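Regression test case RT-17, inverse folding.

Input:
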């Protein structure tokens, strides 16, 4: 009879069991995923304070990847990060879902995403969660030019 399995290790004392990933970590991930040998299909870094710098680093790696889903909810991504991700859409063909809920993305970021969406036919899901009037109008106009998007949140 086999001995019972060992219990899972306890997290370190002092509340240090979970440490968020910041922009430098996103830079490293962006470099890694852009390597030809990387076969990741989805990245979910939601809840990590990546900020615009981290989103831009991931965006730089996207064109050379096969990543189909990128989730950056609650990641402190603002207009500059959204614009960097929008720019990456022009040169990537694999991204099908971009999740950016609960981020401080305003009209400039939404407008950048809308402009990319107007010509990028591969994206099927865009989750922004909260967009002001100007950004919402830009997104609706983009859908008139490109109706490949299936879900807009």
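Golden output:
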């Amino acid at each position: 009879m086999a001995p019972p399995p060992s219990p899972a290790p306890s997290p370190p004392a002092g509340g240090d069991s979970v440490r968020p990933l910041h922009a430098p970590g996103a830079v490293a991930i962006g470099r890694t995923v852009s390597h030809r040998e990387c076969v990741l299909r989805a990245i979910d870094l939601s809840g990590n304070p990546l900020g615009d710098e981290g989103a831009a680093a991931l965006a730089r790696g996207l064109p050379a990847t096969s990543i189909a889903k990128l989730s950056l909810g609650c990641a402190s991504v603002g207009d500059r990060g959204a614009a960097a991700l929008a720019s990456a859409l022009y040169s990537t063909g694999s991204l099908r879902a971009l999740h950016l809920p609960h981020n401080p993305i305003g009209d400039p970021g939404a407008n950048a995403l809308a402009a990319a969406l107007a010509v990028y036919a591969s994206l099927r899901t865009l989750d922004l969660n909260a967009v002001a009037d100007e950004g919402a109008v830009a997104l609706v106009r983009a859908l008139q030019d490109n109706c490949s998007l299936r879900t807009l949140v």
